[in-house]
Amino acid sequence: xxxxxxxxxxxxxxxxxxxxxxxxxxxxxxxxxxxxxxxxxxxxxxxxxxxxxxxxxxxxxxxxxxxxxxxxxxxxxxxxxxxxxxxxxxxxxxxxxxxxxxxxxxxxxxxxxxxxxxxxxxxxxxxxxxxxx
Length: 133
What we know:
Elements: H1 2-23, E1 27-31, E2 34-38, H2 40-49, E3 57-60, E4 63-66, H3 69-89, H4 93-106, H5 116-124
Parallel strand pairs: 2-4
Antiparallel strand pairs: 1-2, 3-4
Helix pairs in contact: 1-3, 3-5
């Protein structure tokens, strides 16, 4: 229960996006204690989070927002690593993630692929097939 409380600020943000998506025809389910949501509203959001990248899913606490059901299935192991990172870092995860992206960029790397949190998720959770990256 404490891990849900510790991640609650980020989870509440995810739930706000989830509710908006559900109001626009999205679908949701709970899988292993994580709310997974997909639909047109989530696709729209993911297209704007990082223009030029095809983001298939995004984790906010115990909520995973995915383009569609297939994206959620394919990225589940990767996103579960992020859920554990939220459980470890709590409310500090989002600022730490942004700092890690900035550090990667300042070192001449890719803000996504060289972000320490993404590297852990890519290593432990696997990488989605290239057509989904």
